[in-house]
Amino acid sequence: MRRISTAERRARLGRLHRLTATSRASTVEDATRSVVALHATDPATVYLSLQARVRDVTVSGIERALYDDRTLLRMMAMRRTLFVVPVESAPVVQAAASRAVAATQRRRYLKLMADNHLDLPASDRAEWLADVEAGTLRALLARGEATGAELAADEPRLHATISMAADKSYGGTQKITSWVLNLMSLDGHIVRTRPRGSWISQQWRWAPADTWVRGGVGDLPVEDARAELVRRWLAAFGPAPVTDIKWWTGWPLGQVRAALTAIGPEEVDLDGAPGVMLPGPDTDTATDAPEPWIALLPGLDPTPMGWAERSWFLGPHAGPLFDRNGNIGPTVWCDGRIVGGWAQRRDGEVVVRLLEDVGAEAAAAVETAAAGVTAWTGPVRVTPRFRTPLEKELTA
């Protein structure tokens, strides 16, 4: 069995994820393909993840890809998480992940409707929800593009409210507007478009999928799509344990194994732990370490969020860099390892804290990278959606 050392995995990470100086991408589309999908729960992550990977990238260039050329698309998919994917990946992601999430969420919403004692039999609740979706789509087709509030003005049933977690301190009532729009997007009927406000805004506009993207998001057989998604993940994140694939996809282990069977991966030894990688000639042997590199990655960046088992690049630094729910904050990387964190202060300055000694030369490169992010963000102030202990401390 072939052995892949931790050093080799770190070298692969730098090259494959476009983080070394010589591997940086020339387009935002190529950079996104290199990590399969960009995390987009926090809108700023998309932009800062691309800033770290693409030569001469600008905010306007990223917006052009998202909203004018429409070569990148926002989709809710794996683990009910919002991502940005290359538009040609939309059919794969839709069939492999979004469709199943939609089914799960629909069952959850119908149960919540029952728990709220809505005066409707179970079959009628499902029909009512489907009719609300149909009315919302008619309103969106008439407008062409709209916010949730605008659609609720046209389809008043979107104003219906449900009590959430009534026995909890964080409980309360919630309109079903976001439910319906998320279900419709998970089913591939509508997509998120340009937000109101700046590039860090989360107030999305919506459009019918087949008017925003030619042919809509497409449709593929589920088993074929799952195998293709795992193949793409292994190309970007392999070699890795099977449990990492299970975590990233959010699938049951049986579905992961079925997809792997279709691919026929090579089994490898990851410093004593079993792992898999794509079969065939290795086009990126990474037997030699790449040139020294530094990267400042944002909270929820796809690289640290790509694996469940992170000790080989995270080391002992989880405590200050993750929130209580397992969301990673802004990180400083040196040659394939996380060595610190960073934050943007109120005056716009990006400040860093190294959690280990990286040497004077690397420390100077970190400061240069921080100054680069300060200049790139300009007047925009970025506060991560999920704040971590170190990020809070740096901005106190």
TrEMBL record:
| InterPro entries assigned to the protein according to its UniProt record, in alphabetical order | AlkZ-like
- Pfam families in the record, alphabetically? AlkZ-like
Superkingdom of source: Bacteria
The record's annotation in PANTHER family points to: LMO0824 PROTEIN, WINGED HELIX DNA-BINDING DOMAIN-CONTAINING PROTEIN
Official protein name in the record: Winged helix DNA-binding domain-containing protein
